[in-house]
Amino acid sequence: MMNFDYVRPASVADAIAAGSEKGASYLASGTNLLDLMKGGVSRPSRLVDVTRLPGLDRIEHLADGSLRIGALVRNADLAHDADFARNYPAVAEALLSGASAQLRNAATVGGNLMQRTRCAYFYDAGSACNRRWPGAGCDALKGENRLHAVLGWSEGCIATHPSDFCVPLVAFDAVVEIEGKSGRRELPLEALHCLPGDAPERETALERGDLIVALRLPAAAKNFAGHARYVKVRERTSYAFAVVSAAASLRIEDGRIREARLALGGVAAKPWRAREAEQVLTGAAPDVAVYREAARAALAEAKPSGDNAFKIELAQRIMVRALTLAARGTPDRIPALPGSPFSSVAGA
Amino acid sequence: MTVELSLTRDPAHIRHGSNIGQPMTRTDGVLKVTGKARYAADNHPAGMVYAVIATSCIARGRVTSLDVAAAKRHPGVIDVMTPAHKPQLAEDPDAKGNPFAFRMELLQSDEVRYANQAIAVVIAETLEAATEGAALLSPRYQVEIARVGLDAGEAYAPPVVGIGNPAEVRHGDIDAGMAAASKLTDATYETPAQYHNAMEPHAIVAVWDGDRLFIDTPSQGMGFAQMRVAGLFGIPPANIHINSPFLGGGFGSKGLISGPQVLGIMAAKLIGRPVKLVLRRSQMYGPVGHRPPTRQRIRIGTDDAGVLAVINHEARVTTSSFDDFYEPAADASHTLYASPAIRTAHEAVRVDTGTPLFMRAPGEATGSIVLESAIDEAAFACGIDPLEFRLKNYAEVEPTTGKPFSSKALRQCYAKAAECFGWAGRPLQPRQMRDENGFLVGWGMGTATFPAIMFQGNARAVIRADGKGVMETGAHDMGQGAWTALAQISADSLGLDFDQLTFRSGSSDLPDAGIAGGSGHTATVGAAIHNAGAAVIAKLAELATSDERSPLFGAGNAGVVARAGRLHRRDDDTRSESYAEILARAGLAEVDATGSGAADAAAQSQYAMHAHGAVFAEVKVDPELGQIRATRMVGAFAAGRIINPLLVESQLRGGMIWGLSFALHEEAVMDKRSGRILNANLAEYHVPVNADVPPMEVITVDEHDPHVNPLGIKGVGEIGITGSAGAVANAVFHATGIRVRNFPIKIEEIVMGLG
Question: Domains, chain B, ranges and CATH?
C-alpha cells in the first residue's frame, strides 16, 4: 500500500484543519475507504482519523422534538436503540437491511452518508470512469449496467448511490450538520448528494475540509411511526446492495392519507425522494390503485441507462409494495429479514 | 516438517471396535477454531520477505513498459522480477509434458493472455512496500481487442474434453430416435463463468537451501506439484519438500500448482531469501482456473407416454487462447436416463481468459443443471410428474456403454427423498401453489450423479513396540475432514482403537497419496491405507504364528484376526497376543509395511461405477417483485460405504448449497469489451449467505458395492451440486411458469415474466 500520513486529532477544529489540506481524507471506520485504498481507487496522502473525536457518538433528543444523531454513532447501535426503532421504524429497518452484521457494527452514520457508489467500473482502476478521472469517459454506459441508474443519470455517469439508510432519511427531510473552515452549517440530506450532470466527479455538496458531525431527524418524522416500511429487492438475502428499494411512510387519519413520505434507493446517484408520488397520495384513501398511480408518477421521468429497463417496472412495484405494507401498519418488531419481501414468512 | 495429529480424544467419543461408520467430529477441529492450525501463509521463516504480483489490466496484448526504477526507489523494495530479470528456468512453462501440465505465465515474455495475469513480481521487506512497489510499476500496454464470451470466435471441435474423454459420443441411432419421438423438447441453456473462491487464497512460502526447496503451500496434489516444480527448476523431485497440512478450501483450484505459486519460488531463488507470496482475492480470477461459461442445446425426444427415444446434448464451452481444457458439460447425459439413442458433443471457442480448469464437479455441474432442467421440460411436455418420468426412464444399465452398475440405489434415493419432502400430490401445472402470505410456491427435483473415480495413492503403516500404530500418507485435507475419515480407516486397518493411532499426513515427504480430486481421495487413499494396514498385520501374524513360544503358533496367517491391538486365533478366540508382546519377543522396535490403492481395471471394464442421488427443492417467489427464496431442500444420496456420516452429510450439504448458488446466485461478470472481470471480490461475486440457505435434509442411503474398491467407497465431494441446481431451477419454473434458461436466474427474468 502507498505510504500516507495518519493523524488523530483531538478536537473537531483540529480535525478540520488537518482535513482541509490537499490530499487529506477523513477516516471513520473505513468500511468503504480502506477497500478503495487497497484497490488503488482512492490514494489519500493523509488520513484524518475522526473516530476518537469527543461528543460525536451520542443520540440526543432535542427540545424541538427532533433527534440528533452524532456522526460517529454506529449503524448497529442506532438500529438497535429501542427509542429510535420505535419512533423511526423504517429507518431502523433500512439500516438493518444494509451490509452485514459485522459491517454494521463497525460502520458509522456519517460514513454511511459518505459511502461511494458500488459501480464496478468505479472500483476497477483499469476502466474509464468520470468520477475517478474527470473526462476519462464512462465504461458503464455501454457495459454491464443492469443494476445502474434509471433516474437522474447523465451520459457522463450512470452510477447509483448504494445506501439503504439514506433512503428513508431523505424521505423524512433529514438534515446534515457540517463543520467546515467557515464554521457550522446545515444542509438538507437531499441536497448532500449530487446528480452527475456534466460533473460526475462532484459526488457531494461538501467542500474541502467539511466534516459531517451530526444528522438530524425533524420532529415530524415521528408522526409516521405507525405506518412506515422499507422494502429492498436484492440478489441475496444479506450482504448485497439494493437492486431497487423503497421507503414508504404514511400518516393516516380517518381513513385518509394525510401525508406521505416516499423515497427510492438504487435508482439514481442519490437517494431519490418521490415528491410527485407523495402529492398523488395526499388526501387519498389508502388503496392499491392510488399506490399504482403514485408509483407511475414517481417513475414518470425514468429512462433506462442500459440493460436496466426492468428497474423502472420493479421500482414501481416495490413502491406499491412498500405503501401496501406501510398502510397495513408497522410491525411490532423489525422482521428478522429486514427489508426483505419475505420478512412476513413464518420463521423469517 | 510433517504435521502430526494427536488423536487423543475425550474417551466418551471413542467407541471401541469399528471406527469406520462413526460420526466423529474433525480431529483437527480444535486446532482450527483456536487458530493453532498453521496454514501455508502463517509460516514466517527467518529472513523471509514478501513478494507481490503486479497484474495486467488488459486481457490481450503486450506490456510495453514497466517503471521498474520507480518501484525500486520505493523504501523497502528489494527487487523487481520481470521478463528481463528473473531466474533461468530449466523448462519452458508453455511446454506440455503430460495431460496435467497446463501452461502458466512465469514472466517468459511480455505477452498478455488475460486480465489479472502476472506481469511482474515486486519483492520487498514488507507486504505494504511490495504492494506499493507493484502499483508504482505503472505498466503501459499495446492493447489488442479482447475476445470475450461464447461468440468470440469460430467454434471448433476440441480433440478431447475433460481429461481424455472423447468430444463426441454416440450411442444408438440418433436420427431414428428423433424420427420416433412424438414429443420433442429442444432448448438452449447458458451457464456463466464461475471462480472457485476458496476462503484461503493461493499462497506460498518458499525457502531454497542449495538445490533443495522447501515450500509451504496449499495443495490438492503434492506429487503433481513436485513433478512440475522439479521440471521447471531442473532439480530432482525428491529435493522438493512440500508442506500442506491444511487447506482453506480448494474446489479443484489447488489440484495443480499454479503460476503465481511458482513465481513465489522464482522470487526466492532470485534474491536468495525465503519469500512469501499470497494472492489477493482479485488475483484469483485468472491464473488458478475457473469454470468456463457454457451454451448447451439439448434435445430430448419421447413417445406420448414419456418413454425416451433420444437425448442429443450439445455444449459450446470457452477455453483460453493458449491452452486446452474443455469442460465436459454434455457428458452429464451419459449415465442417467435409459434412452436408446444418446449423443453428446462439444465445441469450443477461444477467449482471452486464463485457462479454465477443474472446478467442483467439472462438467457434471454445468451439464447436470441443463439435463435436469430439460428432463423437467420433457416431463412437463408429456404431462407426467417429473419423478414418475425419471422412474419410467430409469437406467438399469449404463445407457451409453451397456455395462451393469457396480451398485445403484437411486430408486431408494428417489423414494426416501420424495417421502421426506412430501412430493406426493404435487400439481403438474406450474403456478398452482401459494402460501398463506400469497407467495408463489414451487417444487422441483433433480437427479444427482457423479462417477466413482480412483487415482493412485500409497500409505505406510507401522506397528510400534508399544503396540500403538502409525499411518503415514501424503494425503490432502481441503477442510472437509479427510484427516479424520482417513484416520478412521487407518485405525480399523490396524485393528486399533482410534486413540492408539498416530496419523501423519499433509507432507510430500510421506508416501505419495495422489491427487485429492474427482471425489476419489478417500477411496484411493482409503484403499492404500487398508492395504498397508493389512500388510503390516500380516507381518505381525507371520512373526507370531511362526514362533513356537506364541499362543498363536501354527495358526497360519489366515488363521488369526486383529482386534483392539491383539491378534486372536480365529478358531479359538481365547488364544491371543498383543502387538506389543509379539514385537517384544521378536526384539523389534517396530514393523512396517506399505500399501497402495488404485482402480481395479478389470472391475472397471465390467461395471459402470457411479454415486447417485435425488434432490428435491421448494422455492417461494414474490408474485410482484420476483424475488426468489429457497425454503426447503431434501437430498438423498447413495455413495457406497459411508466412512463418517457427520462429515459426509456436511460435504453433501455443502454441495447442495453450491447447487442453490449455481441456480440463483453465482456468476462472474465480465466486461465484453475489455475482458476484465467486474466482480472479482466476495462482496459482488455472490454466493449464498446463511440467510439464503434453507432448512436442508441430507439422507444417505445404504449401498454395498463389492466392485468399486475394497472398502466400497464411492466419494461424496462433488455429487451434491449435481441434481441440486436443477431441482432449484425446476422449482422456480413450477412456482412461476417461467422457464429461465440463463443461469443464475436473475430477478428481471422473473419480474418481467410475471407480467
Answer: 44-145+219-236+245-249+254-280 (3.90.1170.50), 294-453+605-754 (3.30.365.10), 455-598 (3.30.365.10)
Residue B686 and residue A340: Cβ atoms within 8 Å? no
Q: Name which of B310, B298, B296, B297 is nearest B182 in CA terms.
A: B310
Q: What's the CATH code of the domain at A293?
A: 3.30.390.50
Domain count, chain A: 2
Between helix B724-736 and helix B645-664 the angle, nearest 10°, is 50
Q: Rounded to whole angstroms, how far apart are CA atoms A111 and A31?
A: 8
Q: Which residue has the cell 501440465?
A: B101
pLDDT recorded at residue A121: 97
State how far the Cα of A134 lies from the Cα of A199, in Å rounded to an integer. 8
Which of A36, A141, A237, A324 is most worth mutating to test chain B (most B CB atoms within 10 A of its CB)? A237
Question: Of B56, B58, B75, B53, nearest to B126 (Cα)?
Answer: B75
Say how far apart CA B125 and CA B48 lie, in whole Å. 8
- How far is CA B687 from its chain centroid? 17
How many other CB atoms are found less than 10 A from the CB of residue A207?
Answer: 12
Strands B111-112 and B61-65: antiparallel
Q: Which residues constitute the domain of residue A249?
A: 224-328
* Dist. CA A222–CA A219, nearest whole Å: 6
pLDDT at B6: 54
Asked whether the beta carbons of B324 and B100 are under 8 A apart, the reply is: no
Question: What would the pLDDT profile of B82-119 be if each residue is shown by its tens digit?
Answer: 999 999 999 999 999 888 899 999 999 999 999 999 99
Beta pairing class for A5-7 and A46-49: parallel
User: Given CB atoms, is B73 within the 8 Å cutoff of chain A?
Assistant: no
Widest distance between CA atoms in chain B: 89
Q: How is the beta sheet containing A211-217 ordered, strand by strand?
A: A59-61, A67-70, A211-217, A175-180, A183-188
Measured in angstroms, the CA of A217 and the nearest CA of chain B are apart by: 30
Give the gap in angstroms from C-alpha A174 to the nearest C-alpha of chain B. 28
Are B632 and B423 in contact by the 8 Å Cβ rule? The answer is no
- If one counts every other C-beta atom within 10 angstroms of the C-beta of residue A32, the result is 20
Distance of alpha carbon B334 from alpha carbon B329, whole angstroms? 11
Mark yes or no for CB contact B435/A243 under 8 Å. Answer: no
Q: What is the pLDDT of residues A262-312, one digit of tens each?
A: 999 999 999 999 999 999 999 999 999 999 999 999 999 999 999 999 999
